[in-house]
Specification:
- This protein has a single domain, classed as L-arginine/glycine Amidinotransferase, Chain A (5-stranded Propeller), CATH 3.75.10.10.
- It is 20% helix and 21% strand.
- The protein is built from eight helices and 19 strands.
- A three-stranded mixed sheet has the order 4-1-19. Strands 7-8-9 form a three-stranded mixed sheet. The chain has a three-stranded mixed sheet with strand order 10-11-12, with helices on one face.
């Protein structure tokens, strides 16, 4: 049974990534699949040769699902022990063919990373378009919760961005081909040419970093400029900024690249940094950008799409407390030097299901209001 919200009348409210967290959604690994190759994703051909899933798509190995769920459940317990209300995604049968009149997909993916799908901006939760065909129906795992929040909170705004058609016109043919050299891909990324086109608005919620009145949105494989424009029109009371990170040859989601920790402080990936001209707004407003510690691991877990920089994918509980993956000792030490109480959370078994501690959650309620942290634009 889901826990009832402890917030009288107001269930949904979250304006940034650092105010005290009181209610959060945590994903599940149940029934998760490796998706078949599609125009925006070719994970099947990236699976290591020695893997039991080499060249395969479909249900992930049961042992890996059980291991991930054990760590997700333990993470939920840790949060509950800190007085945080935890709601959970509702898995569906992901290993089934889906489609629309425009396309078909052999499988779906899963509901481990709620952060990819749900964008909480104040009293609103917005369902993202998603940019992969295999993830088009992922919002279904959160509809029971959103419906409940709608019934409990008369001020909750439940929104869904326009569902994209995801025809072949939305993708650059051959972009993910193994024949494309790193040099060519680096040039494309520097020129902001990504696998998604500007045919229609496309975005994953995890490309958005919330800092009060200002939203910083990564232009990436999963979020195009038309979507950033759509967000500007949809959220006219906010300032929406497009950012990009040229060092990343496969830019997907901002939270292992550029992570706000508290007002005035950003953790930045040293391997893919914000261009100087885009740093200006932070410099004008006296924000410090610190480079993240090196990861404790030089390889990814089996079947993990993310990079070793999931080391910096942490969940800030408040301006003095942060959850960090338990084996990422260098990142823990850095947070301690920055004045944080660090809560170690074993989580590497979850990485393969869509990301780290920040990815695995979606804010429902944080204390605080919408503030202007960047008055000098």
């Amino acid at each position: 049974m889901e826990e009832q919200s402890v917030h009288e009348n107001v269930v949904v409210s979250s304006w940034n990534e650092w105010d005290p967290l009181k209610h959060v959604i945590v994903g599940r690994a149940d029934l998760c699949c490796i998706p078949a190759s599609e125009p925006a994703c070719d994970f099947v051909n990236e699976i290591p040769p020695d893997s039991e899933m080499r060249g395969m798509y479909g249900p992930r190995p049961l042992k890996s699902v059980e291991a991930a769920n054990a760590q997700l459940d333990d993470f939920a317990r840790i949060l509950k022990d800190r007085g945080i209300t935890v709601s959970r995604a509702t898995p569906i049968h992901w290993n089934r063919a889906t489609g629309t009149p425009d396309w078909s997909a052999e499988t779906m993916t899963g509901c481990m990373p709620p952060r990819d799908v749900l964008l909480t901006v104040g009293r609103e939760i917005l369902e993202a378009t998603m940019s992969n065909r295999s993830r088009w129906f992922e919002y279904l795992a959160y509809r029971p919760l959103l419906n409940r929040f709608f019934e409990e909170d008369p001020g909750f705004k439940w929104e869904a961005a326009p569902k994209p058609r995801l025809t072949d016109a939305s993708f650059r043919r051959g972009y993910l081909s193994a024949e494309v050299t790193d040099e060519q891909r680096r040039q494309w990324v520097n020129d902001k040419v990504f696998v998604t086109t500007e045919e229609e608005p496309l975005f994953d919620a995890a490309d958005v970093s919330r800092m009060g009145k200002d939203l910083f949105v990564q232009h990436s494989f999963t979020t195009n400029l038309k979507a950033i424009d759509w967000l500007r029109r949809h959220l006219p009371e906010h300032r929406v900024h497009a950012v990009n990170f040229p060092g990343d040859l496969h830019p997907i989601h901002i939270d292992a690249t550029f992570a706000p920790l508290r007002p005035g402080l950003i953790l930045s990936n040293p391997a893919r940094q914000l261009p100087d001209e885009q740093k200006a707004i932070f410099e004008k407003n006296d924000w410090e950008i610190v480079l993240a510690a090196q990861p404790a691991h030089d390889t990814r877990p089996p079947l993990c799409e993310g990079s070793v920089w999931l080391s910096m994918n942490s969940l800030v509980l408040d301006t003095k407390t942060v959850c960090v993956e338990a084996s990422e000792v260098y990142q823990q030490e850095q947070f301690e030097r920055l004045g944080f109480e660090v809560i170690p959370v074993p989580f590497r078994d979850v990485y393969s299901f869509g990301g780290g501690l920040h990815c695995a959650t979606a804010d429902v309620y944080r204390e605080g209001t919408c503030e202007d942290y960047f008055p000098r634009q």
